Amino acid sequence: MSLIFWTLTLVGLIKYVFIVLRADDQGEGGTFALYARLARVARLPTPTATEQEYDTNLARFGTKIEGGVKPSIATHRVVLVLVLIATCMLIGDGCLTPSISVVSSISGLKQISSIGNNAVIGISCAVLVLLYVFQRLGTSKLGVVFAPVILLWFFSNFCIGIYNIVVWYPGIFKALSPHYMIFYWRDEDKLSWEVLSGVLLCITGVEAMYADLGHFSRQAVQLSYCCIVYPAVLITYLGQAAFLMNRPESVADTFYDAIPDPVYWPMFVISILAAIVASQAIISGTFSIIRQSLMLGCFPRVKIVHTSGIVEGQIYIPEANWTLMVLTIIVVAGFRDSLAISNAYGVAVTFVMLITTILMTLGLLVIWKHNILTALAFFVIFGLIDVSFLSAALNKFLHGGWFPIALSGILFTVSVLWYWGTKRKVDALDSKKGIARTVALKDGGKIARVPGVAMVYTNTYTGIPAAFTNLLSNVPALHEVVVFITVRYVPIPKVSLGERLLFMPLPVPGLYRCVARYGYTDPIDEDGEFTKAVLNKIAKHSKPELAAKLIVLPGKAIEANMKLVYVMGRTMTHPKPGTGMIRQFFLEHTYNFLRRNSRTASGAFNVPRDRLVEVGVVVEI
C-alpha cells in the first residue's frame, strides 16, 4: 500500500498533473504534441513542410524562435524515433485499455453466479462492439452520459473505501509513511521488484489523461484529478488494503470481495459503466495522437470528423475506430484472461512513460529554458521510477508482455515508412519547382489559351505545382484562368467568408494564387460555396467581358456549361536505377501500398468527380 500511495503521488500527481500536463501544444496533449512544440522551437523539419512554410506556421501560431537551437540530424532522428515508439505504444494501449477494463468488470459475474469464462468473454465482446459503435457521436455527446457515471463511480468507491477502513483496519493510514516501502524493498528483495508490475496498474491511465488534453482543458483535468480522482482512488486502495489485512485469501479478487453484499449488484453495474468510460477516454486519446501524427506527416491520410464546434480536439476517426474495435476483440478472445491482458497493458504504458520523461527533459531545456540541474533532477528522479516499472513489466514478456511490443513494432514500421517515403517525395517535388520557370508562360510562348477556369491544388505557398508543370509539358494548352489553391487549417472553429481567402494575381496574365483558410469545423466547399467565392474573387481582377462570365450570384448554382476543372496531382514513386533490393522492396511493396490505400486529396477537399483531372507525377527516390 505504501508503494501504491507514493506511486500515485509522485507519478500521477506531481509528474503528470503538475508538470507534464503543462507541456501542451495549442491545447493538444500527448507525446506527439510535445514533439511538435519541440520541433517548432528547435526548428526540426517535417516531411510535409518546407523551411519557408515552417516559418509561416511559426508566425501563425505566434511562436518565438529566438535563441532556438538547431540540432544535428542524428539528434533529430533519435528524438523522432522515440516519439514514434511512444505514439505506437499508446495506439496499442487504445485496444488494451478497453479490453482489460471491460473484462475485469464483467468478471464480477463469476463471483456470485455459475457463469463460466466463455460467457464472460462473449459478454465483454458485445459490450466493446457497442462502445465502438457509439464513438461516432463524439466526446461532447457521450460526456453528457459519462460524467454522471464517473462521478458516481468515484463517490461509490470512496464510500466503500471508508467503510472498509473503519470496519477492517483503521490503522491502514500508517502505510502513507515511506519507511514501509523502504523496509519492503529491503526485506523482500526480488519479490519487491516483481510486484512493481502490479503496482504499475494504479497509474496506467496517466498517459491517456495527457493525450486527452485535446478533448478537455488542462485546468479541468488538473482540478478533477486533484479534487476527485486522487482522493477517491487513494481511499479505495486504502480500503482494499485494510480488507486484505484480515482477508488475505481474497487477494486475487480484492475489488469485488471487498464490496459489502447489500451494494454488490449496484456496484457491479456502476463498474461496467465506469469501464466503458475509461475505454472511451483512451479511444479519444488515440484519435488525438493519430491526428497529430498525420499533421506531422507520420501517418497515412485518414478521415477526421470534428464532433464539436467548441473544442477543436474533439474528433472521430472512422478508420481508427473500426481497426481498434477489431484489435480489441482479438485481444479479449485471444488472451481470455484479465491477468494476461494486464501484463501486456503494463509494458505499453511504461514505455510511453519513460519516453515522456525523456522528451520533458528536453522540453525543460529547449522550450522553457530551465537550467541543466533542474532538467537533470527531473530526468534522474522520474527516469529511475520509469525504468524500475519498465523492467518489472518486461519480466512478464512471455506472459502477455510481447503483444504491445509486436503491435507497436508493426505500427512503428508503418509510421517510419510513411515518414521516409513522404519526406523523399516532397524533396523530389521541391527540386522540380524550377522546371516551371523554363516554361515560357510570361511571353505567351507556344502555349494555347483555352476558355475556362482551372483550379490547381498544391501543398506549397510558392512555386508552380509539379503536376501542373507536367500537364503543360505534355499538353501545351493553358486555361484562360488558372488558380493555384493552397488549403490551410487554423486553430479556430470557423473562419468567416470575408477572411477565408487570401488572393493575389501572379505576373502571368490569368494566373492567380489563393490561400484558403478553414476552421476545424468548417465544411470544405459545401454546395460549391468555396468555388463560387474564388470565381467572384477572380472576377474582380478580370476584364469586364470575362468578369461577367465568372460572377456567381448568391444562391445561384455554378453554370453547368462553364468549363471549370479541378487539377490535382497523383504522385507515383519509383526507386531510382541501381537502388538496393531492400530499399526497393520497402518503396514498391510497403510505402506505395500505404499511399494507394490512404484517403485521396480529392475526397478530403470534396472535389466534384465529374470535373476532376488527376495528373500523374512520377518521382524517383
From TrEMBL:
Residues annotated as transmembrane: 78-103, 115-134, 146-171, 191-211, 223-243, 263-283, 322-341, 347-368, 375-394, 400-420
Organism: Coccomyxa subellipsoidea (strain C-169)
Name of this chain's protein: Potassium transporter
Role of this protein: Potassium transporter.
Molecular-function GO term, any one: potassium ion transmembrane transporter activity
Bilayer topology: Multi-pass membrane protein
Compartments in which it is found: Membrane
Family statement drawn from the similarity comment of this UniProt entry: Belongs to the HAK/KUP transporter (TC 2.A.72.3) family.
Domain K+ potassium transporter C-terminal: 451-621
Primary localisation category: membrane
Sorted UniProt keywords: Ion transport, Membrane, Potassium, Potassium transport, Transmembrane, Transmembrane helix, Transport
Pfam assignment, any one: K_trans
Upper classification of the organism: Eukaryota, Viridiplantae, Chlorophyta, core chlorophytes, Trebouxiophyceae
Domain K+ potassium transporter integral membrane residue range list: 1-432
Cellular component, GO, one term: membrane
